Amino acid sequence: MARMFRSVSLAGLVIALSASWLAAAQSTPGPQTAGNATPNRGAAGGILGRPSPPQPLQKQGVEYFIGSWTFNWNGRESAVSPGPRTGTVTFTRRGEGPVLEFQASGQVEGLGTYKETGTWEWLAAQKAMVMKERLAGGAEAACSGDWSSPISIRCETEPIRLPNQTLKLRRTYGIVSATSYTIAEELSVDGKPFVRLGGGVFTKAVK
């Protein structure tokens, strides 16, 4: 009889403790699911009260490019591209208007020197940079670059007609900062889909 009483008392104690633990678990808020979580953002929109860094937006126009830039371009050789090269491109303003003249020169990997020239004209109303260039191989390229976004210029050249083929270049200029921009180039041959040609990184010479 005493053994039975002890067993009943022990069972009652276990039940009582289980009920206490269950009540405590139900009264304690659990972790929120990902769908309901709300990040702790500061007044400036940062995470955990930290302000978000400002975007590196540059003012569109010829003033951005004026000066000398060193560059490193990597990519394959083509009828309009001499292949991997390094060098300098210098933009100078023509008079007081929104027109730049540029000269690029440098070394082609394993092939010697090269040179390119041309003009760029900024059309503020259209937010476009009209580019006319004589490429290293002697071909001429022209395009109207869309600079409506301050972080990039996008353009596709008019057909470049060579004796045995017709080419088009597609370029994206990434405006990284006041002293750096990039170029990504694609090439289409005889109306075929554009394929990757190469890309370059340009760094402004700061006096």
Rg: 32 Å
Uncertain spans, ≥5 residues at pLDDT below 50?
1-44
Quaternary organisation of the protein chains: single chain
CATH topology of the domain at 78-204: Lipocalin
Structural class: mainly beta
Mean pLDDT: 82
User: What is the CATH-assigned architecture of the domain at 78-204?
Assistant: Beta Barrel
**What is the first-to-last residue Cα distance?**
101 Å
CATH superfamily of the domain at 78-204: Calycin beta-barrel core domain
Globular, elongated, flat, extended or rod-shaped: what is the shape? globular
Characterize the main sheet. 11 strands, antiparallel
**Highest CATH level, the class of the domain at 78-204:** Mainly Beta
Beta-strand proportion: 35-45%
Task: Describe this protein's structure.
The protein is mostly beta strands and 207 residues long. The chain has a domain at 78-204: Calycin beta-barrel core domain (Lipocalin), CATH 2.40.128.20. Helices cover 13% and strands 45% of the residues. Strand 8 (160-161) and strand 9 (166-177) form a beta hairpin.
Fold topology:
Blueprint: H1 2-27, E1 67-75, E2 85-93, E3 99-108, E4 112-123, E5 128-134, E6 140-146, E7 152-156, E8 160-161, E9 166-177, E10 180-189, E11 195-204
Antiparallel strand pairs: 1-2, 1-11, 2-3, 3-4, 4-5, 5-6, 7-9, 8-9, 9-10, 10-11
What's this model, at a glance?
The chain has 207 residues and is mainly beta. It has a domain at 78-204: Calycin beta-barrel core domain (Lipocalin), CATH 2.40.128.
